[in-house]
Every structure is written in structure tokens, then in C-alpha cells.
Design brief:
The chain has 142 residues and is mainly β. The protein has no helices and nine strands. The strands form three sheets. Strands 5-4-7-8 form a four-stranded antiparallel sheet, with no helix packed on it. The relative contact order is 0.22. The mean pLDDT is 93.
């Protein structure tokens, strides 16, 4: 059950669902909007994955901003921007990208363009670590 905070055990659930969990670590997030603006409230279930190499890291991106259009994720390497995730729509998550542990300059752009939605700056990704970058909130005020 997902309830609006603060809540008590007697308060109604804003969302209720059954999720089958296995032995692997799992992330469960409530995404969307209570009012349905941009997308109804729903659960997003992501199966997590470990990285055991101290030289490698894993990065995935989840698009949970209900009123935002599709986005691309770019990384700057040798002075040039490269798309590493393409056309990520609301409610979707990329697969894990296996990368060398390093500091990367990352940004979110409108899909298929170079129009910057959010510059994440330099992000340090440590070895033996898996990351999920979450695009959250609303693009416009409600």
C-alpha cells in the first residue's frame, strides 16, 4: 500500500498492489501523480544488480517525471557529448550501463535534440557500486 504522508493505519491507500519479490534486491517506487496530472499513480518495480569489480560501476536511469517528454542522457567524453540512453519515456528505466569507475559529466536533454533539460555536472561513479539516477518531479508547476 502507498499512502499520502502523514498517514495512519486507518487512512485509505492511494495505491494498492501485489508485488512478487524474489531473492534479488528490488527497488519499488510510486511514480505518477495523485491527481493523475501527466500520469496516474503507479508502481515501478526495478530489479537491482550488483557490481563486484572495484574497477567497474553500473548506471541506469529511471524517468519518473509524469509531465516531461521523452529524454536522452548524454555523457561528455574528450570534449564531445555522446548519447548513452535514448528516448526514455515516462515510466521507463534504462538497462544498466556497465562503465569504468570514473567521474563523468552528464546531462539530460529532450529526446533527439541537444536542448538541455538538466545539467547534472560532474558525477563520480565508484567501483563495485550500482546507481540509479531518478528524473523526478514535474517539469511544469501544477
Amino acid at each position: 500500500q502507498v499512502k499520502v504522508a502523514p498517514s495512519t493505519t486507518n487512512d485509505p491507500a492511494a495505491l494498492e498492489a501485489d508485488v512478487r519479490l524474489g531473492s534479488r534486491p528490488t527497488t519499488i517506487a510510486a511514480i505518477g501523480s495523485l491527481t493523475g496530472d501527466g500520469g496516474p499513480l503507479q508502481l515501478k518495480v526495478l530489479r537491482d544488480r550488483d557490481t563486484r569489480s572495484r574497477y567497474l560501476t553500473r548506471l541506469r536511469v529511471a524517468h519518473t517525471s509524469p509531465d516531461a517528454p521523452a529524454v536522452d542522457i548524454q555523457v561528455k567524453l574528450a570534449g564531445r557529448w555522446y548519447r548513452i540512453v535514448r528516448n526514455l519515456e515516462f515510466g521507463e528505466a534504462s538497462g544498466y550501463l556497465l562503465l569504468p569507475a570514473w567521474s563523468y559529466r552528464l546531462r539530460i536533454v529532450a529526446a533527439g535534440t541537444s536542448t538541455v533539460v538538466k545539467d547534472l555536472g560532474k558525477v563520480r561513479l565508484k567501483g563495485s557500486t550500482s546507481y540509479t539516477a531518478w528524473a523526478v518531479g514535474f517539469l511544469t508547476s501544477i
